[in-house]
Design brief:
The chain is α+β, with helices and mostly antiparallel strands. The strands form two sheets. Strands 1, 2, 3, 4, 5, 6 and 11 form a seven-stranded mixed β-sheet that branches. Strands 8-9-7-10 form a four-stranded antiparallel β-sheet, with helices on both faces. Helix 1 packs across helix 3, helix 2 packs antiparallel against helix 3 and helix 6 runs antiparallel to helix 7. The longest helix is centred in the middle third of the chain and has 20 residues. The protein is globular. The structure holds L-homoserine. The site of L-homoserine has 11 residues, from helix 5.
């Protein structure tokens, strides 16, 4: 077995509109690279971190913390070195921390001969999310590991379901160049909801899952509605309402906040529509004079992969 592995760790869209903390999907077109190698020396060392200004001390780095969680459950006597090449910007809302924490534990598991299940890898990676945002949510880490769409049916006990992905589904994600920390955008949320909003929300979650399995794109579109989190968080995102109305006009099935923002995502049927939607979103931000990155991506069915 090799002592070193180079991997691609996909960006992810958490929440997917109606599924706060439970739904997520993995992207194809954007992600980080990492190199992980076994060492005789025990513990985890981050030896390179390029592309973003993030802490390299093991206990302050999400990959380090997730890796230590795996080591604590392993009988392996050595350690690991980690090199991280970030392409995903921190605080962009497309799972930057999840890419690093899942990449670390997925690669370690490969190098150790796969002693751990995907569910256990999600549990280790959630420790990275705890460090990054104060809450060990799994809606970014699950799709990074399983690929495609995932549902966190339950947190205690942890129960992850991989959901069918329709073949023509594409995501368009626009990232205004501002940073929103997940911890901050969680603080502004209310801790309780009205029953009438709950009814709308779980109707949409059920509708979205049914639409994904039956490849009913209209049903997917009708279900991409968030009555609880989006109305609060969208205030932090410049031009959100205009992005939403213009992308829907251009043919998107739905539009909402990616993870905790500030990125905004749409889902579309087919690449042609996803590209048209990208143009409409570009126009909105060009008119507002806001700098941005934009990605058009197929849904990544595989999740993390070896390069
Ligand atoms: N579900 C989390 C949130 C995802 O929206 O706070 C954070 O990326």
């Amino acid at each position: 077995m090799s002592n070193e592995i180079r991997i691609f760790c996909p960006a992810t869209i958490a929440n997917v509109s109606c599924g706060f903390d439970v739904l997520g999907l993995a992207l194809d077109a954007v992600g980080d690279e990492m190199v992980i190698r076994k060492t005789k020396e025990k513990g985890i060392k981050i030896t390179k971190l390029e592309g973003q200004n993030l802490p390299m001390e093991t206990l302050n780095n999400v990959a380090g913390v997730a890796g230590l969680a795996l080591l604590a459950e392993s009988d392996y006597q050595g350690g690991f070195e980690i090199e991280i090449y970030k392409k995903i910007k921190a605080g962009s809302g497309i799972g930057s921390s999840a890419a690093s924490s899942t990449g670390a534990v997925w690669a370690m598991n490969e190098l150790l001969g796969k002693p751990f299940s995907s569910l256990e890898l999600v549990q280790f990676a959630m420790e990275g999310e705890r460090l990054a945002s104060g809450v060990a949510h799994a809606d970014n880490v699950a799709p990074a590991i399983y690929g495609g769409f995932t549902l966190v049916r339950s947190y205690a006990p942890l129960d992850i379901i991989k959901i069918h992905t329709p073949s023509e589904l594409y995501a368009t994600v626009i990232h205004p160049q501002i940073e929103v920390k997940t911890a901050d955008s969680r603080k502004i949320l209310k801790t309780s909801i009205e029953l009438k909003d709950g009814i709308k929300q779980w109707g949409n979650v059920g509708g979205l899952i049914a639409g994904l399995y039956t490849e009913d794109y209209d049903l997917i579109g009708r279900s991409l509605e968030d009555h609880i989190v989006e109305p609060i968080r969208s205030i932090l995102i410049p031009g959100f309402d205009k992005l939403k109305s213009e992308s829907l006009k251009a043919g998107a099935l739905g539009c909402s906040i990616s993870g905790s923002g500030p990125s905004v995502f749409t889902l579309s049927r087919g690449e042609k529509t996803a590209l048209k939607v990208a143009d409409s979103m570009r126009k909105v931000y060009n008119n507002f004079g806001i700098d941005f990155d934009i990605h058009v991506s197929k849904i990544n069915l595989e999740g993390i992969k070896q390069l």
